[in-house]
Each structure stands twice: as C-alpha cells, then as structure tokens.
Amino acid sequence: MPETTSATAAPLTVMTVNTHKGFTSFNRRFILPELRDAVRKVGADVVFLQEVLGTHEEHGKKWEEWPDAPQYEFLADSIWPQYAYGRNVVYPKGDHGNAVMSKFPIVHFQNHDVSLPGPEKRGLLHAVLRAPSLPHDVHTICVHLGLSESHRVQQLDLMCELVRSEVPDNAPLIVAGDFNDWRRKANAILEREIGLREVFQQAYGESAKTFPSRFPLLCLDRIYVRNASVHLPVVLPRRPWSHLSDHAPLVAEIHL
C-alpha cells in the first residue's frame, strides 16, 4: 500500500454510486428520496455520484416527489455543504452528469469533457478539497467512462494527462466512479502511468463485482488512490441498494 502521508490526520470515508438519475431499472419508479436516505446512513465524508440529473423540465410534472433543486443539491442538503457538478449530457428537457458532495470545502473544480465521436457524452469532474487537518489539498476525480472499449482506452489516457498536468505529485488523489471496465484493463494502465492503485485489488487481490447490483458479475465501479492508504473497503449490501441503483455502491476509509 502507498505510505500514509500524515499519522495524525483523521481518515476520510468515501463512497461512489451510480444514481441512475434517481430511478429504478428501466425507469419504472422514482426513488431519489429513498436513495438520499440510504446515502445519508452511510455517513461518507465525500460522495462520488454518476448519472445525476441537473435539471429536467418534464419529470416534475409527472412525479409528485420530484425536488425543486437539482438532484445533487437535493442529495447534499444539510449533510454535505459543498458540492460540484459536471454537466456531461444535455438534451431538450434537461441534463445529467457527475457530481461530488463533500463535508470539506471545495476550493476548485472543473469538468473535463472526454467525449469521443458518437452518441456518448462523458466527463471527468476534478474537484479539490481542503481539510484543515491535512498538509495538502485532496484532489478528487469523479469518473464515468464510455461503453466502448476503444473509447475507454482513450479516456484513460486523457485522465492520465489530467493528473499529470493538474495534480501535484505529493498531493493525495482519490479517483472513483463507474469505469465500465468489464475487461479489467484500467488497473494496470492507471498504476503504470500515474501511480493509482485500486483499493479492492490492494485489500483483497481483485476489484469488487458491482454490476448488476442484484447479482453482481462485473467489476465496473472502482476507487483508486495515490499518496494514501485504505482500510477495509466494502461493497454495500443488496438490501436496500439493489433496488436503489443498478450498480452496487462502494465505500472505503482513506488514510491520508
């Protein structure tokens, strides 16, 4: 494992979850309020969200519990005072993308468009967190890569370029999200190119199976770290999560 950078800093609990725009599989039921309750119970310091809606003009007319605020604000309300949103997909009635919710100040964020020719629009949301007890700012990148393997390889290259250009070598770095990497190629690339290590592979010898959440077969969701160590990462249980997301959420305690 990478060496811990500070022996006295309190650990960060991080979580990643694909919210599926607040709906169950096949959009049968709107479950965002239930999802918020479940995320809050985890109590993570930093939450990485994928497929979260910013706006949608029509859903509020159809669903009684539809929030007035963007979904990431609704999820963050009163628990995570800081949040950043990266809009990736825009359509006539709304938009969705990635988000980071944080209990610590977000001092800077930028969404990097890594879309490639074709219908898929993808982004890497880079947010910098400042915790008073830490000697360095914590860099986070929320990820949702493409379904095409050729696109994923190019998007991983773009991520490596982002890290080299924007993340100091000595800064703690946490990268998490939905990698769609069912052939498990990302781990070797990211460790070789920019020193990122996948936390489940470190702890248990292989990445966690997260998709589909009812009967996980594929290792699509990941948490990577650099200049940090990890304690007992876990896949959250099927109940209640299997009906809240088609991806099983991941949680890890990060020591900086």
Give structural notes.
Mean pLDDT is 92; it is low at 1-7. The chain has helices spanning 32-42, 59-62, 71-76, 149-166, 186-194, 199-204, 238-241, and strands at residues 12-18, 46-56, 82-91, 94-102, 106-113, 123-129, 138-144, 173-178, 197-198, 221-226, 229-235, 250-255. 23% of the residues lie in helices and 34% in strands. The chain is built from seven helices and twelve strands. The protein has a six-stranded mixed β-sheet. It has a six-stranded mixed β-sheet with strand order 5-6-7-8-10-9. The chain has one domain (12-255): Deoxyribonuclease I, Chain A (4-Layer Sandwich), CATH 3.60.10. The chain is an alpha+beta fold and 256 residues long.
User: Can you tell me the CATH superfamily?
Assistant: Endonuclease/exonuclease/phosphatase
User: Which term fits the overall shape?
Assistant: globular
What is the overall number of helices?
7
Unreliable spans are: 1-7
Query: What top-tier CATH class fits best?
Result: Alpha Beta
**Which sequence of SSEs, written as H and E, runs from N to C?**
EHEHHEEEEEHEHEHEEHE
Output mean pLDDT. 92
Head-to-tail CA distance between termini: 12 Å
Largest sheet: 6 strands, mixed
Question: What structural class should be given to the helix and strand makeup?
Answer: alpha+beta
Q: How many domains make up the 3D coordinates?
A: 1
In order across it, which strands form the biggest sheet? 3-4-2-1-12-11
Radius of gyration: 17 Å
CATH architecture: 4-Layer Sandwich
Percent of sequence in beta strands: 25-35%
